[in-house]
Design a protein that fits this description.
- The structure holds two protein chains of two kinds.
- By secondary structure, chain A is mainly β.
- Chain A is about 0% helix and about 50% strand.
- Chain A has no helices and twelve strands.
- In chain A, strands 2, 5, 6, 10, 11 and 12 form a six-stranded mixed beta sheet that branches.
- Chain B is globular.
- The interface of A and B includes residues 4, 41, 44, 107 and 113 of A.
Chain lengths: ~120, ~120
């Protein structure tokens, strides 16, 4: 069984400061990794994903995450946050399914979320 | 091009009543997934449906919960005889083809169910 741990439930940070949101996972098989963001009163949006290849993945709005297999982590970072980054961030994992038709192709396991508050 | 639409946004039910949550997938999407977020918990998979078919309901409680995705109309998550423990946020996602995690899901804004 897979599990995802987001140790920080809330992270306050000043505007233009760097931020790291931590995510660790446990799984007995290879995984795909995702970060989703939920802005107030909206649905979850995919922020970035790691499927294979380069372990450093980037989003279009300046976030990046690095897959570290030895530490089973997928921490999310941004060097300089903006007020508009205030949101809840969810880390998620899915089992890498070679057949691409089993539960691993559609079933996500989420962490509890981290609420990022950017302070002016 | 509207996203995944869920309604109502907030729903209050008394214990023992029925709750019906609706999800209209994005245009052209025929695969729907329901997730539940209990207080202080992450989202948990409940059920995966295609038009007129339940593909995987392994995450759905065995009693009182049912889901459907008819040929016409939205997907419905139905909870009979609600109890306080059903209070949660229920999210729906849709995709054009099965899973395709490489493209990510598109989630709706969720329905917040409160049982009093």
């Amino acid at each position: 069984a897979q599990s995802v741990t987001q140790l920080d439930s809330q992270v306050p940070v000043f505007e233009e400061a760097p931020v790291e949101l931590r995510c660790n996972y446990s799984s007995s098989v290879s995984v795909y990794l995702f970060w989703y963001v939920q802005y107030p009163n909206q649905g979850l949006q995919l922020l970035l994903k790691y499927l294979s290849g380069s372990t450093l993945v980037e989003s279009i709005n300046g976030f990046e995450a690095e897959f570290n297999k030895s530490q089973t982590s997928f921490h999310l970072r941004k060097p300089s946050v903006h007020i508009s980054d205030t949101a809840e961030y969810f880390c998620a994992v899915s089992e890498k399914d070679k057949a691409y038709s089993g539960a691993g192709s559609y079933q996500l396991t989420f962490g509890k979320g981290t609420k990022l508050s950017v302070i002016p | 091009n509207a996203g995944v639409m869920q309604n109502p946004r907030h729903l209050v039910r008394r214990r023992g009543q029925e709750a019906r949550l609706r999800c209209s997938p994005m245009k052209g999407h025929s695969h729907v997934y329901w997730y539940r977020q209990l207080p202080e918990e992450g989202l948990k998979f409940m059920v995966y449906l295609q038009k007129e078919n339940i593909i995987d309901e392994s995450g759905m409680p065995k009693e009182r919960f049912s889901a459907e995705f008819p040929k016409e109309g939205p997907s419905i998550l139905r909870i009979q005889q609600v109890v306080r423990g059903d209070s949660a946020a229920y999210f729906c996602a849709s995709s054009q083809l099965q899973g395709l995690l490489s493209y990510g899901y598109t989630f709706g804004s969720g329905t917040r169910l409160t049982v009093v």
